[in-house]
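To: structure desk
From: M.T.
Subject: fold request, one chain
Message: Could you run this one when you get a chance? Sequence is below, nothing fancy, just the single chain.
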Amino acid sequence: MLEQFIQFAPGRTCVCIDAANLESAAKDLDWHIDYRKLKSLFSSEKCIGLRHYCVRHGTANQGAFFSFLKRAGFTLVTKPLKRIKADDPLEADLRKANFDVEIAVDAVATMAQFDTLILFSGDSDFAYLIDFLRRRGKHVVVMSTRYHVARELVERSSKYLDLRHLKPWIVRDSKAMNA
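Reply: Done. Structure tokens follow.
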């Protein structure tokens, strides 16, 4: 399976991870992503960037995780969680930290440097980006899970891969979690 994955990512690659989407999919699968393993899927010679887009909560645990990701070679794109006060005191405040624009702008800004965009997200808003890149000869591989990926992305991408097929190569070892 890993060899098949590599064939769908020809040339130089750029990896964009919508952390909220990836972590939500992993949670539904009852997994934890091992980001060292995830990084090892991408050849350092061919990968022009591993970009991780994530809300910044400012906790010590998250700070340690961000430090780990940086040391592992990920580029972090973060912003604070936005809270929109509800008009009705009985309703919960709306919480937002969407990275669709940041991912799209970064992909377009760096597209001369890559042949394949690997997008860890299932958000339908990326359909327009995929169309744009494909019209310019780029391959786009979408990675998500069945209930976290929009039909538009599956149809428009060069290849859709369900994360479940990559489990042996990306899941965190439960023994390591308990150590």
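Reply (cont.): The chain has a mean pLDDT of 88. Let me know if you need anything else for the meeting.
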